[in-house]
Write a structure and sequence with these properties.
The complex is a heterodimer.
Chain A lengths: L1 H28 L2 H4 L1 E12 L2 E12 L3 E5 L6 H9 L6 E6 L2 E2 L9 E4 L11 H11 L5 H9 L15 H13 L5 E4 L8 H16 L3 E6 L10 E6 L2 E6 L1 H8 L4 H13 L1
Parallel strand pairs in A: 3-8, 3-9, 6-7, 7-8
Antiparallel strand pairs in A: 1-2, 1-4, 4-5, 9-10
Helix pairs in contact in A: 4-5, 5-6, 8-9
Chain B lengths: L2 H16 L2 H21 L4 H34 L1 H6 L5 H30 L8 H23 L5 H18 L11 H8 L2 H15 L4 H24 L6
Helix pairs in contact in B: 1-5, 2-3, 2-5, 3-5, 3-6, 3-7, 3-9, 5-6, 6-9, 6-10, 9-10
Classes of the chains: A alpha/beta, B mainly alpha.
Amino acid sequence: MGKGVRTLRNRACIHWTSLRAVEPPEMIDYRPMSAAASIVVESLRIRRGGVVVLDDLALSVASGKVTGLLGPSGSGKTTLMRAIVGVQIVESGTITVLGEPAGTPSLRWKVGYMTQNPAVYGDLTVRENLRYFGHILDAPPTNVEEVLETVDMTSFGDRVVNRLSGGQRARVSLATALIGSPELLVLDEPTVGLDPVLRRDLWKAFNELAAQGKTLLVSSHVMDEADHCDDLLLLRDGKLVTTGTPAEVRAQSGKQDLDEAFLVLINEEVE
Amino acid sequence: MSFRATFATALRVLKQLRRDPRTIALLLLVPVVLIVLLDQLFHDRRQVFQQIGGPLLGMFPLIAMFLVTSITMLRERVSGTLERLMALPLAKLDVLAGYAIAFAIVAAVQATLVSIVAFGFLGLHTQGPSWAVVLLAISNAVLGMSLGLFVSAFARTEFQAIQFMPAFIFPQILLCGLFTPRAQMAGWLRGVSDALPFTYAYDALHRATALGTFDGRFTLDLTVTVGVTVLALALGASTLRRRTG
């Protein structure tokens, strides 16, 4: 029994290291123009319930970085993320994800998605939830414990999800997105409702994932989280207000505080 | 479609059910209590018990699975887990087949238990083999499951889903031939009865229990039951959308 477990763990290790060794050169050498971007959105227009939510949106998300998708609630962040993972009806425009049109079946293996409301089975335990998602993605069994550790939920693994607090449930939902070691992570407000210590730890985990070569698109309406990101996209009323690194955004607005910087940029747009 | 994803889904549905012992108790015990009630009700009229006992036994799983599936699927739609699943490498058929396997297993346990009680303790007789009744009960359960899955697309709340039961199931029970032989029905009622899947499910059970005749009409009954199941599953699959507005 013990031997079997060890073999599986070894196999998982090989799986991880080989992924790390192979991927980055491919990304750099192949197709120089678009290879640096994991997501490219062009003239995207989306209507939800008769209302235009995104209009003529164009943006790109760099590979191997943490990109923050920021903006007030109702600015279209969730709609954009749903479109990127291929579950949103798109009126016009194109979205290219990892070199393929968004929604292509093969992308479902490579893109991890965390919905805004925890989409997990409340009547299952944390581990049962993760094992189910792991089975679908054909992830090695050890992957469950790895993602549990990333979201700091190992000690709650055998708890039924319905008995967990809101913040814990959100972390389970995040764990389901991490399972299968996807290349691209699309996380819709993963840190909302979490305490400051946990938020700091999660951002650290996101940065580590990016350092391993993963691409992360993380939405938030809390501007002070922007400093954890490599790149920022500021959305307002379905339009891109600004983009750049935190330092560039500061320079653009002339404000040191990112919260103020965004207020300045948003107001400029309005006027 | 992949066996791994289908099997994982079936296992997941069964695990969810296991966390809900009250529902399991209700699923397994209610049919037993009802058949005992029926036995007592027709204590002095054994003929009636013999006539309706068998078919009813095969119909319980149909009704139970209709309800369970429509509510479970509705929850999956409302809670956002369906949207999450649609973003995963999982075919719609994997979801449906996973549900079908899980509920067929539950139906098999349910039908076996009530059959043991009815045939073993209550003296219910059947002309055909008793396992045929259990098999028909399972196929009816899958029919109920597929119908429940389909109607769940038209319900937005659990209240609505439950109301589909009297709306969808009761008329079929009334017209299937259990209460009044179809030969005695008014012409238009019989026409309606001809168009309802329960009629064929009931007729197959009636032939297996009361007549013991597995003739051409029995084959037709089975064909219609399976055909409607497949049709409802296909329609149900079309209501599972990868992309929504």
